[in-house]
């Protein structure tokens, strides 16, 4: 990606190796529960960020962005697109996001989802899907504010139940 995506408040740009310390500092129980499944370690986060960079460089199925504020200077969370993920059909991308506690409740996640949907449409995706565990009310609210509509439920291979929210992209 040559230039960051921005709406003037939120900027999305690829995650970078230098984002590791800020990501670890922002991690809390909610991010662990709903997004990562376990606490991060410096080594684990560094490996993930290297994987993200490789996916960008190789044109892989993952596009991991930092959600940045303050003119792109401060990492407030992450959002990613996956074109190959459990439960997707051809032309769909999965959207997953998380904000660090200090940045929640300001509408930043909704802004980030709208920006990443614009990017997804520009690279040829037909629809975006947000898969949310039913108890994650904050994520459901983001999906609805970003124009996603209920698209049924599904069980993941590990037995986790997800509510699906879908938004057609133009």
Automatic annotation (TrEMBL):
Pfam families with a match to the protein in the record: Acetyltransf_3 (PF13302)
Organism: Streptomyces nigra
Lineage: Bacteria, Bacillati, Actinomycetota, Actinomycetes, Kitasatosporales
Name of the molecule in the record: GNAT family N-acetyltransferase
Domain annotation N-acetyltransferase: ranges: 10-170
Domain of life assignment: Bacteria
